[in-house]
Design goal:
Elements lengths: L1 H51 L5 H22 L8 H9 L6 H16 L8 H18 L4 H20 L2 H13 L4 H22 L18 H30 L10 H14 L8 H6 L7 H20 L7 H21 L8 H17 L2 H12 L5 H17 L5 H7 L13 E7 L20 E8 L2 E3 L12 E7 L3 H12 L2
Antiparallel strand pairs: 1-4, 2-3, 2-4
């Protein structure tokens, strides 16, 4: 009997990896098409507004197009609210057990709505929708295989990693983002399935788009140790503006709600009208912003131009995201970070504190720092920029700027932006699921309140039962005398309707 159980346990990991590979290939194909059509749409919009300079009557056509897109996507958002915005908070909520939704209605509406919203030139990113598309494909795969509980969540998390990998060609960072920011779980089964799915998805994306990094940027000189004080100043600068970004983003929806007589699902018409002068005068600034970042390789604007560009991108990014249209903030954040890095570098050059050849380095590290502060995911930020830029020479400067920006936002009271967005969307529990059970896995962190306590001494949440402790490669059923240690992975069985509440309670217990 024991040999049979061991044999079954040995096959569980390869089976999960095989499933994750399938999800990765499917997600890579879907997100690859999503990415291609968005790029095509953006180029057509820029061509359209260029043509409008010779034929101004085309502006009336654009107004009609904006109204049509608003009505179509607005109806979809009213039917399926889960397609709104980035989609990352929804995926995080699914993995926590705080919300759930049917996969097919979300998949096709998010795909089509994202193309219409992002491809139209609004300042929205493709990466958030790509993560939700991948996660939804993982959910659909789990449904087709009749997977539930932990197995189902593994497929959703794997799909999320695959979606980001296909959007950015960054499989390692994509896997870490799911672990650090979305799933909050570093168990072996989670990371190995997420990595497998991300690698398979990245392979598909590479076939479609080539090997060149998405934000390739040749750098000038490496920072000497005597210059690191400048990086600390940059991190503080990015942290303060990152906290400002968080505050405004969380309030922009409330500001939209004050528009009289305009239902929330039709707020997009405001963004389409405000976009017209931008598209008329500055069509190169449209979209998520990757063209702006890559454009710095050829032309570096002056400090005043960069300041104006930052204000434009910051304000209209908020205007675009506040509409609720399917679209993310991931790439817009990186674009703002790149602009701030260039601005900071230009000021340092004008003060004769650094040489102009260091400007590309400031752009690279500032992207990581701004994202690390806003998302509070510094490890992801460091690896993401490393993969997207295509250099391993900036790891130390990336780490310094990301850490300082993170600590600055933390000191100013900022929370991880996707977690804050989720808190505004979900209720504590899901009605209608009473009677079913589920599991929560949580790592015990160094310095947590339960490190060193016996099981009987812990104030466990209601509607839960500690059923397993994993330490190293061994798993056993604990009793009241079992002592918990940092590094343990605790497995708690819960009433499914209470999973989100139990998850939050365990976070307070297990984290430092």
């Amino acid at each position: 009997m024991k040999q049979e159980q061991l044999r079954q346990h040995d096959w569980s990991r390869p089976i999960a990896v095989a499933r994750a590979a399938g999800v990765g290939i499917l997600a890579g194909g879907v997100v690859g098409c999503f990415r291609f059509v968005i790029q095509l749409g953006l180029s057509q919009v820029q061509y359209f507004f260029g043509l409008a300079h010779q034929r101004p009557w085309l502006l009336l056509v654009w107004m009609v197009v904006g109204v049509v897109i608003t009505l179509i996507v607005g109806r979809w958002m009213k039917q399926v609210p889960e397609i709104k915005g980035s989609g990352i908070p929804e995926v995080e909520g699914q993995l926590m057990g705080a919300l759930d939704y049917k996969w097919w209605p979300v998949l096709w509406r998010k795909f089509a709505g994202g193309i219409l919203g992002i491809g139209s030139g609004l300042f929205l990113g493709r990466e958030g929708p790509s993560i939700q598309l991948g996660a939804t494909i993982g959910q659909g795969f789990a449904a087709s295989q009749r997977l539930a509980g932990t197995d189902r969540r593994l497929m959703i998390a794997s799909g999320a990693a695959a979606g980001l990998a296909a959007a950015f060609n960054a499989p390692i960072a994509s896997s870490l983002f799911v672990l650090e920011e979305v799933y909050h779980n570093f168990s072996t089964m989670v990371w190995i399935t997420a990595l497998t799915s991300a690698v398979c998805s990245n392979f598909v994306s590479t076939v479609l788009f080539g090997l060149k990094p998405v934000l390739y940027m040749p750098y000038g000189h490496m920072f000497g140790m005597k210059s690191y004080w400048v990086l600390i100043l940059l991190g503080l600068f990015l942290g303060v503006l990152g906290r400002l970004y968080q505050v405004v983003l969380l309030r922009v929806g409330d500001w939209y709600a004050k528009i009289p007589g305009l239902p929330s699902q039709y707020h997009a018409i405001v963004a389409f009208l405000l976009m017209m002068p931008i598209a008329w005068w500055l069509p190169q600034t449209l979209g998520g912003g990757n063209a702006i970042i890559v454009g710095f390789n050829h032309l570096m604007p002056g400090a005043l131009s960069l300041l104006g560009l930052f204000v434009l991108r910051f304000v209209f990014s908020m205007v675009s995201y506040g509409t609720g249209l399917p679209g993310g903030i991931f790439l817009p954040i990186l674009t703002l970070g790149a602009i701030l890095g260039g601005l900071f570098g230009q000021v340092m050059v004008s003060l004769h504190l650094i040489a102009p050849s260091y400007l590309p380095d400031f752009i690279i590290v500032a992207m990581a720092g701004y994202f690390a502060g806003i998302s509070k995911a510094p490890f992801t930020a460091i690896l993401l920029i490393t993969e997207m830029v295509g250099t391993l020479q900036h790891l130390m400067p990336l780490a310094v700027v990301s850490l300082v920006a993170y600590l600055t936002v933390d000191g100013l009271g900022g929370a991880p932006i996707y977690e804050a967005l989720l808190d505004r969307k979900v209720r504590p529990s899901i009605p209608g699921l009473l009677g079913a059970t589920d599991q929560v896995e949580m790592a015990v962190f160094e310095g947590s309140s339960i490190d060193g306590l016996q099981v009987r001494q812990v104030n466990w949440p209601k509607h839960s039962l500690l059923t397993g402790v994993r330490r190293g490669g061994k798993v056993w059923v604990p009793n009241g005398d079992t002592i918990l240690h940092a590094g343990d992975l605790i497995v708690v069985t819960v009433d499914r309707s209470q999973r989100a509440d139990v998850y939050r309670h365990l976070q307070l217990l297990a984290q430092s």
